[in-house]
């Protein structure tokens, strides 16, 4: 009976959604200017570095590099971990450092070069993460290799690679040799364009030392990087959410140390720092069997991190990278074993991404800080079941709907335009998340002869709802007749997941089905291009946008 009631309720809500519409009016000022629309979205990362050069990894990296007008930045873990390079969930290795029988260092850059070569060949920039601890240097090397899989205890991953070095001098020499090798291989100018960073989430199990030991290894690391290349950019601390107790505490300890602390290497005050980093995650859960997102949790993490950094005048203008910025924390925790992650395959992930990235600009502006990038911690998982529900951008080489929102971002201009109207501003969304009416709003930009407008219809609750009828006025258009193109991500457009379900969710799609899925995974236009005329400098548009849908409107003129 309970199951029957759920079916009846679902049918009722679906019918209601088809009939009703939510009217919203948005206004874009094409003559206004709110500063540079930095490509903060052109940053991606993942746990498993050895996926980089595998077949689907290379394919996805090529697609990411093509969607952006600027170089895409890529951050991966485990670049100094000991092992044979076998790829596995939450694991990677390069064997960059071992020791001979006499304890003499042996350096082997074969796998790290293969990873970085894959990025550089595509015009991408590595965020060179210095970590984790090689087996021969770890103060507690046993056990070292883990074999975690979805459903296992997450704490099982924190093995010998997470510990401090038994010899800080050998660690520093490893860092020095790696940076020098990169300069020799890729050139000084290229390596100067990268960011170098130490470790990942040292306030939790990723670092098994004390906070003081982390500050010590940072000083040794930064000193080694600068000795190898004085113009290299180094920073950290890549803590978890600053709105939480551990992340916020270590972020402040780090900022205090690099400004007024005693350097463990030089004995002087302060440490080199060129970029500041922290993480920010949302918190989905199941409510009455349906996924409910919590964007507010992620935005509060971001806002708190910005607020803390803004409190240090000497650091306030440094570039900030949100090193992982996602709807929740575990990319490798699949939907089949973690049902709260059932947002990942469809349009809820894509609409969440559009709405959340727009608010990162607002939060940075409100705190007066320099946001350079926000890393989407999602890539691909090689040779896994189709649409298993990992937090990834593609499955078996087929792009998922969320990737098409990044293609939309890649079409945006560099000048940010004012947008008024909408149902939520960033403050309300930060404080309340989206629990009442949907978040229907837009992000707009301009080039010399075009305006691009990203419009989304998002709600935290993964249930049917009415479509939005969006009246969009573009003011101060400097031409009469304009060409209008619309690109769409929804259930019927740019959606390989819905196409796969209509095929019967095949576990092993045929060659023809794979081709159809690949086509469905590309960004699609919604209808033919239009020629519309501005009246008294205002171009009036209308978009009927289903719940969890995203549209990109490109208005151009001669």
UniProtKB/TrEMBL annotation:
Domain of life: Bacteria
Annotated signal peptide: 1-20
Gene Ontology BP terms: carbohydrate metabolic process
InterPro entries given in the database record: GH, GH39_cat, Glyco_hydro_39, Glycosyl_Hydrolase_39
Family: Belongs to the glycosyl hydrolase 39 family.
Organism: Siphonobacter aquaeclarae
Listed GO MF terms: hydrolase activity, hydrolyzing O-glycosyl compounds
Domain called Glycosyl hydrolases family 39 N-terminal catalytic: residue spans: 95-522
Name the record gives this protein: Xylan 1,4-beta-xylosidase
């Amino acid at each position: 009976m309970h199951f029957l009631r759920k079916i009846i309720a679902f049918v009722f809500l679906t019918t209601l959604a088809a009939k009703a519409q939510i009217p919203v009016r948005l206004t874009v000022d094409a003559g206004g200017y709110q500063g540079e629309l930095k490509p903060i979205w052109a940053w991606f990362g993942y746990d498993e570095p050895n996926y980089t050069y595998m077949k689907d990894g290379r394919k996805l990296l090529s697609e990411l590099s093509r969607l952006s007008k600027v170089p895409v930045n890529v951050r991966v873990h485990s670049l100094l971990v000991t092992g044979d390079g076998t790829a596995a969930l939450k694991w990677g290795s390069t064997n960059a450092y071992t020791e001979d029988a006499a304890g003499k260092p042996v350096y082997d850059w074969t796998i790290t070069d293969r990873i970085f070569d894959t990025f550089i060949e595509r015009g991408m920039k590595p965020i060179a993460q210095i970590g984790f601890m090689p087996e021969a240097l770890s103060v507690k090397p046993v056990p070292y290799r883990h074999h975690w899989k979805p459903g296992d205890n997450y704490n099982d991953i924190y093995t010998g690679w997470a510990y401090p070095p038994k010899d800080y001098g050998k660690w520093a020499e490893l860092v020095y040799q790696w940076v020098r090798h990169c300069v020799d291989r890729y050139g000084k100018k290229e390596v100067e364009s990268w960011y170098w960073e130490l470790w990942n989430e040292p306030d939790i199990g990723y670092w098994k030392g004390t906070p003081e030991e982390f500050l010590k290894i940072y000083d040794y690391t930064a000193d080694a990087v600068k000795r190898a290349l004085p113009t290299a950019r180094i920073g950290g601390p890549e803590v978890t959410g600053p709105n939480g107790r551990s992340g916020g505490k270590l972020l402040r300890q780090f900022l205090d140390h690099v400004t007024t602390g005693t350097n463990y290497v030089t004995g002087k005050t302060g440490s080199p720092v060129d970029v500041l980093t922290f993480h920010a995650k949302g918190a989905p859960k199941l409510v009455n069997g349906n996924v409910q997102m919590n964007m507010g949790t992620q935005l509060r993490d971001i806002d708190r991190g910005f607020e803390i950094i803004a409190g240090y005048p000497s650091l306030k203008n440094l570039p900030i990278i949100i090193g992982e910025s996602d709807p929740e924390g575990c990319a490798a925790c699949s939907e089949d074993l973690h049902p709260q992650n059932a947002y990942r395959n469809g349009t809820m992930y894509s609409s969440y991404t559009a709405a959340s990235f727009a608010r990162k600009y607002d939060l940075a502006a409100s705190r007066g800080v320099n946001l350079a990038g926000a890393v989407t911690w999602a890539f691909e998982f090689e040779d896994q079941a189709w649409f298993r529900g990992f937090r990834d951008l593609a499955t078996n080489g087929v792009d998922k709907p969320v990737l098409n929102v990044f293609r939309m971002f890649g079409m945006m201009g560099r000048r940010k335009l004012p947008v008024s109207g909408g149902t939520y501003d960033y403050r309300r969304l930060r404080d309340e998340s989206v629990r009442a009416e949907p978040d229907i709003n837009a992000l707009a930009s301009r080039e010399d002869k075009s305006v691009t407008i990203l419009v989304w219809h998002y709600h935290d609750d993964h249930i049917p709802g009415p479509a939005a009828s969006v009246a969009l006025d573009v003011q101060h258009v400097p031409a009469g007749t304009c060409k209008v193109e619309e690109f769409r991500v929804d259930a019927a457009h740019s959606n390989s997941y819905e196409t796969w379900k209509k095929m019967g969710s095949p576990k092993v799609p045929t060659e023809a089905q794979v081709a159809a899925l690949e086509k469905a995974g590309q960004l699609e236009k919604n209808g033919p291009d239009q020629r519309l005329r501005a009246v008294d400098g205002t171009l009036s548009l209308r978009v009927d946008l289903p719940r969890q849908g995203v549209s990109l409107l490109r208005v151009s003129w001669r």
